[in-house]
Specification:
- This protein is mostly beta strands.
- Helices cover 2% and strands 51% of the residues.
- The chain is built from one helix and 24 strands.
- The longest helix has 6 residues.
Length: 290
């Protein structure tokens, strides 16, 4: 791993959901608190583009036909960034008790997005699969904070976190049918200094996880053994993404939310987007086929 760097601006309140766009060669991420979407090239002198969103974002993916599918906290919608037009997608989520959080696309072009209990106390969260025909299917439930979805390179395993419970699950994944089965605990974070937040998988099948509260990114091999760690100068990393021209740059979003005034003073880089070179590349992020 090379030196850890960061982009000084913008510093997000709640930086989240980094996503590398291989077609345009740009890293995207959001500030969930400020309803902002950011984009910039990976060159140090690249300018950041900022888009205002109509609602608080949770997660998103690019569409094959242009634009995005965006899971806001209380709505999933198709979004045209050029015109600002949106088309709501019905999911069946009960927004009186849950809201959308993290998600991503599988390599068949389906969008997976999970919900969390609004007060982070009850198991009211679920995991939804949204197909290219815009039909929504509840695939898992009994979650407090659904988070961190990623897929193994051979499309046989789906990783999925319950951050509040401190657990990373692994499921048998059938990419052809879009089904999951045999949920089991992949890594138990109970007893560790942090909890699992966003994640991504590299080309060798290793899972990179932002350990929020611990000030680090950790890497697990396909057997759940920790094989690496990147220490950060901030305690609340939120998610990770492999990108850059050769997919060997690890981008790390962070947040200021949840820090006391004293902690913010001690962590002036909290909320910045960090990046570093790693030795194993990632895989191109799929686009939503709808």
């Amino acid at each position: 791993m090379s030196e850890l760097n960061h982009y000084p601006e913008p510093a997000a309140v709640l930086g989240e959901a980094p996503l590398w766009d291989s077609r345009e060669g740009r890293i995207w991420w959001v500030d969930c608190d400020q309803k902002k979407l950011f984009s910039r090239g990976s060159a140090p002198d690249s300018e950041t583009r900022t888009f205002s969103l109509p609602h608080h974002p949770g997660c998103y993916a690019f569409r094959e036909r242009g634009g995005m599918i965006m899971a806001y906290r209380n709505q999933v919608a198709l979004l045209d960034l050029e015109t600002g037009e949106t088309e709501p997608v019905e999911t069946g989520a009960d927004f009186s008790v849950e809201r959308f959080n993290d998600g991503c696309c599988d390599r068949a072009g389906r969008f997976w997005a999970g919900t969390m209990h609004r007060k982070r106390t009850d198991r009211a969260g679920s995991l939804f699969r949204i197909d290219p025909d815009l039909s929504a299917h509840k695939m898992a439930s009994d979650l407090i904070v659904s988070n961190g979805i990623s897929f193994s390179p051979d499309d046989t395993v789906m990783y999925h976190h319950d951050s509040r419970a401190g657990l990373i699950f692994a499921y048998d994944f059938d990419c052809d049918r879009g089904t999951i089965a045999r949920r089991r605990v992949f890594v138990d974070f109970n007893g560790r200094p942090g909890r699992p937040d966003g994640c991504t998988t590299d080309a060798e099948g290793n899972l990179w996880v932002a350990e929020i509260g611990a000030g680090r990114v950790v890497r697990f091999d396909p057997h759940g053994r920790q094989i690496g760690e990147i220490a950060l100068p901030v305690t609340r990393p939120s998610s990770v993404m492999l990108g850059g021209e050769d997919l060997s740059t690890l981008f790390i979003t962070t947040m200021r939310e949840g820090l006391s005034a004293e902690e913010q003073a001690a962590q002036p880089l909290a909320g910045c987007l960090f990046y570093t070179r790693v030795d194993v590349p990632g895989l191109p992020e799929p686009r939503f086929a709808g």
